[in-house]
Structures are given as C-alpha cells and as structure tokens.
Amino acid sequence: MHPSFSFSEETVGFLIEDGVFDKERSEELFAEISKKIKRFGKINLYLEDQGIDKFTLPAISDNVLFKHENKEKLNKVALVSDRKWIHACATVENLFLPIAVKSFTVDERMEAMSWIMEK
Description:
The chain is α/β, with parallel strands linked by helices. It contains four helices and five strands, in the order ββαβαβαβα.
C-alpha cells in the first residue's frame, strides 16, 4: 500500500516509497487511484518518487496505459522526482494525452503542490 493523502475532494496524492517499482506495485497503486476516482470523480493526481530503487519496464508501460485509459477522469498529474527520464516522460505524455502532466524536482515539491491544487 502506498501512503496517500488528499488536498481536496478533487486532488489526491501518493508517495511511492523505496524498493522496486514493478508490475505488482504499479497495479496496487493504480487500484488505489481507481478507488479515489470512483470516490471523487475526475481528479488531479500528485505522485512523488521517494527513493524508488528501480523501475521495471512493465510498470512504466502500465503507467502510460493507465493514464491513457483514464484520460477522461484525470485533470492534472504532478510528477515529483529527481529522475530526468521521468521529466522526459511527462513531456512526451503532454503531446499525446489531454491531461496536463507536469514534472517537478523534489526541491520543487511545494511548487508542485501549489500547481496541482490550482483551478
């Protein structure tokens, strides 16, 4: 289970902690996000990498598929990480998804929280 929190009824966040972020962990995370979508309807999503050791390719592809399948239920997605490839993924996702996806470094966490809560 991933620690989660809500900024408001429409904005929820998840902290993804250390270890390997594999297909099993991604499915757990997306099940939790789906519960929030069912509860609140269309949401803003804040995801923060808190020292994940490794990402697997199936987990990364699940991430892209989940956002595509739920594009009508997601307003904005804030990705907080110091990994440059995550920032690059956010840039590419913005080209293909009707969701505002923006990446921030860990030092920009407060900016990310402000951005995700903006109407």
